[in-house]
Amino acid sequence: MAAGHLIVLLAFFLVGFSATVSIEENGPSEASSSRSYLSTSAESETDFIPFSRKGQRLRAAELKERDQDHVDNRGLHLHGSKTQHIREGLFRHHDYETDCRSHGFSHAVSLLEVTFGEADALLAFKDGIGSYSEGALDDWTPGKRSGYCSWTRVTCNRHLRVTALDLSHLNLTGSLGPSLCNLSYLEELRLNQNFLQSEIPPELGRLSRLRILDLEENWLHGKIPRALGNLTQLRHLVLGRNKFDGGIPEEFADLQKLEWLLLSDNELTGEIPASLGNLQNIVDIDLGSNNLTGSIPRQFSNLTNIHYLVLTMNHLTGEIPPELGKLRMLEGLYVDNNNLTGNLPVTLSNCSRLWAISLRYNSLTGQLTPINFGGNIKRSLRILSLHRNKFSGHFPDTLLNCSKLFWLDLSENQFSGELPKFDVFGGLFLPLTCNGMKHGNFYVLQVLSIASNYFGGSIPSSIWKLPILQVLDLSFNLFTGVLPQDLSRLSTYKLPMIPDTMIRFHLTISLRKGEFTVKYEYVLNALMSIDVSGNQLTGKIPAELGTLLGIRFLFMGDNNFEGSIPFELGELPKLSDLDLSRNQLSGPIPVSLSRLRLSYLNLSLNRLCGPIPVVDSFDTRFFQSFLPGNPKLCGDSINKTCESSNFSCGGDLHPDPVSTVSEWADSWNLYFHGVSMTAFAIGASVGFATVIGLITMVPTLRSRFLFPRERRTMDHAESDYGLFRRPS
């Protein structure tokens, strides 16, 4: 009887039934009660198109056109007992419910399998989902089984095969079950940025056509299945930001078409398989933020097409293999936060496309030789970060040949000697902290940080001649003498218009171990933090500080400032932290300070006098901020009544609230191409907002702040890695 029904079914094709055929459902409990789409032509291979780049890796990627024909859900119906007979006849010979195999069936069975398998596989997957974004999968129902190709985030080809499933960013909870292995024509599976909690089912290794597997940013755990090594068509394997443990499967070496291997931010252990060096087509490897050990495989020198190698925040030891100098396509090398030793390989100078080298937080030693920055690299290098290593010796003059360099971080090493003239760099950020270098001349420098060194004597006058200097950090040194009173030379460059979104940044000016008797001019009013604490600065606190309307943190403690506290400090609307302790300040506490919404205040160990302001309970909110010291302060909060003349200041020492600061601010309120500038501090010029945006990322320990990635789809293109973009 089954054979008879099969003959009837084949007759439909012989007489020209090329349309889709729907089979009436008998109830959701029957696994085979599906509508069936029939087709007489075999599936043809479609061109692979990578979706937009995951992570903020900015590199050129050639995208191919993709033919994705969306199907029409309308079709002809088979009714009544005839439908049931067809089902029974076919399924007496084949139990389909759990079998993922695609061989051994007759042509007719495989045609009915399209609908029976595709729709049921999707519904079974949904059954494992606990919740999702409102309305996201509401149309995935048994009652709409015949229209599965039009379900949310489902893509079919013209033969009604599910080829792509993009369920990213839907807040999915639940588990990733094996049912998706029934989608035998699936080429792209994207479940990234959800809350799935399970292991990866090994059955996914049967999806032989899969080209993109993206499970990034879930709560997946367990070991990465070795069966994924069977996905020989795979181009993108993205499993980052989960909780996978165990080692990296050796079987990944069989993925010869793989272009992206992104496994960062997991708990992977063991050594990096040397066999990964066989991935001839790999473009991007990111194994950062794991617990990997051992050395960097020398076999990586065989990765002739690799652009980015990211091994940050692991426990790698040994040297950086000199063989990496053979990687002529390499653009970014990131091995921050490891235990690497040895020298910076001179062979890297052969990498003509290498524009970012980040080796921070290692134990690298030796000197930077002229060979390191000769060769081809001088035309490409833009970012060099060697922060917190053990490099020594003089600054190599050949680094000056890297004319595109804009970020140079040599801080916390053991460099010594004088710096060369940086007159070839157009926009250099230069933190040189914790070294032993002496100052040279930098005529085009925008940011200069020589903090945490052993500088002494007077500050070289050449610093004040830098025409476009934007940020100056002289903290943690031993400078003596007096700073010049006029820094107008630092503000001669005209600032072009900058969008509001680009001037929201943090900036800290530090002039420790020097003198703070300088007039400030021309800084964006978005300046947020000034720290000059812990020095031997003298003179009065500049009243011009009151013009920094964006300031939030002002730390000037542990110096030798004298005079009164400027009334203008109470006019800073965003000020939240104020520390003026351990100075020689005198006079009363300005009433204007009581109007600030401070979260931290320290005025102790000064010579302040008179009553503590009581407006808005100022005296009780900060009663611990006035002692010790200040013997002539009085008020109920410190248990000293103000009736005695012992607490008198000998006259009103408050500055005039209507001081010359208003006239000063008005006279220096400048408008350059629509940008309102409040005259105040050290210098701003072209690229100011961009450079400061970069500076905000210096304190972060994650090496990703340098990564040029785009790891989000186009509708989630916000940056995880700051302002760095691939240079144009």
UniProtKB/TrEMBL annotation:
Q: Does the keyword Zinc apply?
A: no
Q: Which residues form a coiled coil?
A: none
Q: Superkingdom of this entry's organism? A: Eukaryota
What is the topology of this protein in the membrane according to its UniProt annotation? Answer: Single-pass membrane protein
Residue ranges of the Leucine-rich repeat-containing N-terminal plant-type domain?
118-157
Q: Where in the cell is it found?
A: Cell membrane; Membrane
Identify the main location.
Answer: membrane
State a GO cellular component annotated for this protein: plasma membrane
Which chain regions cross the lipid bilayer?
A: 679-701
Task: List keywords of the entry alphabetically.
Answer: Cell membrane, Leucine-rich repeat, Membrane, Repeat, Signal, Transmembrane, Transmembrane helix
Span of the signal peptide: 1-22
Belongs to which family?
Answer: Belongs to the polygalacturonase-inhibiting protein family. Belongs to the RLP family.
- Which PANTHER family does the record cross-reference, listed alphabetically? OS06G0587000 PROTEIN, POLYGALACTURONASE INHIBITOR 1
Entry protein name: Leucine-rich repeat-containing N-terminal plant-type domain-containing protein
Q: Could you tell me which species this protein originates from?
A: Marchantia polymorpha
